[in-house]
## 1
Amino acid sequence: MKKVLLASACLFALAAPASAADLAARPYTKAPVAVASVYNWTGFYLGIVGGGAWQDASDIKMKGGFVGGTAGYNWQTGNVVFGIEADGAWADVSDSITGATVVPGFGVATATLNSKIDAMGTVRGRIGWAVNNVLLYGTGGYAWVDNKITVSALGLSASESKFHSGWTVGAGVEAFFAPQWSVKGEYLYRSLGGEDYFSGALATNTLEMHTVQVGVNYHFGAPVVAKY
């Protein structure tokens, strides 16, 4: 046992100076400097958008969903970001009312009126304040919908589509979650002018719509700059 302990002590004594020499010879290396990413919002982008819409009205109250595409361009100066954006979507936003009506030659009959928006879109300006990868913004501009009204009574029906145009205003928040990808949430109020249907036999009031939508955008170019 004494011989084993003596041999171990000798090996340790020989290894210790070699390890110390290795440590002394190893050069000092500084820790890497952290890199901060600065997001540049300037540039062209494309994306997809979808959400829900509903109407405030006393009689017919359309509601439903939509999905479509977005295209836009941003300019950034300092923390201020401004730009233009257009979107278009397929929609299924509708409502029906049923009531009694007088049909000439037939007397009183039950009739159903259905109003359905099957397409909608906007062309808007945007202006906001960017804090690195997060943008808070207001938006407003032109809005449109394609609306179809169908009237059914006595087993017969008639339909007509009209293009309603007006204005929109709203606000949103957008944030980069990857170097060239961002996600946004947005609320828009849309006021769309009334139209005459069936040669003036039926007139609609102003369509006042609320929409809440989310989208994902791909930004072309290099929106991320490394700052040391």
## 2
Amino acid sequence: MSDRPTMVALYAPADRPERFGKALDAGADAVIVDLEDAVTASRKDEARAALDAFAEEWRSRASARPTVQVRVNAIGSRWHDDDLAAVGRLPAEFDVRLPKTQSAADVQAVSAAVPARRVHALIETPLAVERAYEIASSGAASIGAGEADLRSALGIPTGTAGEPGLLYSRSRLVNAAAAAELPPPLMAVWADVADLDGLEQSCRAGRALGYAGRTAVHPRQIDVIRRVFTPTPAEVERAQRIVDRVASAAADGSGAFVLDDGTFIDVAMLRGAERIVAAASRS
């Protein structure tokens, strides 16, 4: 369990233990061990059994190790209960990533089944998008989108051609997270691992909407994601000036002031500046 900001989260199939070490060393802030989409039905038991091996790999990295989430199978699937039971035997620091979250009750049910573990809710259907704030305010640690299912349900093309059709859903999740005082969400995976230009373009659009980073399905995507979402030195310098000046103004009893460049600032802008400084620390 960690409160450090996450910029890049890398998926790793739970049934491929030979990849565990590479995933942990790839440079992501978090590793998502996947029991769901990356694992075929015939290998679910094998994948679940391999979680202990992943935990051992993770423990062997005493410092600078990524945080971990385990993406379980969805509520209502025949694997869900066994997945949660397996998670309950893992290190307490491991979170749960819940796919196809449909309601606040889904988050609360998982929280009750694996107490003291944070639940990250994936929103993957049009109904869940409309319930984004309800889900975000249910006790979830974060929300994020599963856009493959959304594209299918909404009839949106894959790849760059479908980006405009996701604008509403993406914006709604950012707003819901902010309204529930959760961290900004991570973008969904970019499925075409060879299309790094498309990934970069999509990341830039997501950052402009308020996203804080992205999930990845291949280590080669990590550098692109981190480069786009890492604030520039000029952005960090300006954000730090805001943080410092707000602290100074508060000490003086002032509620507003003007930066040297003429920009009017008040304490309401502090949160955005703090977010930039925190994001820079993950670069």
## 3
Amino acid sequence: MTYRPVSGMDLARFAGIPTFMRLPHVPADDPRRAEVDIGLIGMPWDGGTSNRPGARHGPRSLRDASTMVREMNRATGQVPYDHAAIADLGDAPMSPVDQDEALDALAATVATATGQGIRPLSVGGDHLCTLAMLRGLARAGAPTPGLVLLDSHTDLYPPYFGGRTLTHGNPFRQAAAEGLIDPHRSTMIGMRGTAYDTEDFDHAADLGIEIVTTDAMLDRGLAATAALARDRMDGGPAYLSFDIDFIDPAFAPGTGTPEVGGPTSNEALRITRALHGVDLIGADLVEVSPPFDTGGITAWLGASVLFELLCLMVPRS
């Protein structure tokens, strides 16, 4: 069996059972797991959302939209399926009503896949899912990665209301506290919009995380910004998290916390491609919220970003 998408030349793109990129579905008990290099995992959970929910429906929406993705990356000439066995591993069994159970189930799913030699590429779900992804990698003994974050928010705030309950506003604060990321090799790109205060930027400075705002990214240039993040990684392992609200809501309206003034879809794809050469042990795309989408444009853009992330995880030649 080959781990390649079903071609639209053989089966209409609106036909068949949708999987990520029309790839084979290889569940946990399938012996083909031993052959898989990169596994796509759905994270259908948005219990950490602080305002507008709906990202729990992101994985299903992205599976459907990704049936439009073809084999070749026209911009780079890559055909990722020539270099790796890639499969849809299904969804993590995340409880919609219990945060601890949900995050632990995702961490266990990622740990199992990583222990089988599979690099995870996951689709959310809200951004708190990334914390469980990082926990799963650590549980499997993966090296501590530097973080590249493409997002309009730092997600470094303390828990809301003075409590302990985590939200999608603080996964990276918690990840740093748990030693799941290396702050001194981490870069956050795309921050913009209004803020409560400077708490998150101050905390980033204390940790050693580099922040590049949207304005600074556009002034510096996309390639130079990507080079900064790559240089800070210093050749070590990396994790890339892409929040769809990194992109201006004119292009990606289907998200819970949109921020105007962001990059175009073309700029988002270009800076993602420019990160090639970073040694990714895992990656994710989060915060696509279908209830707020318009004509499926956010889902289609998300599927396109997902393909670019996949291409980052395999060689270009």
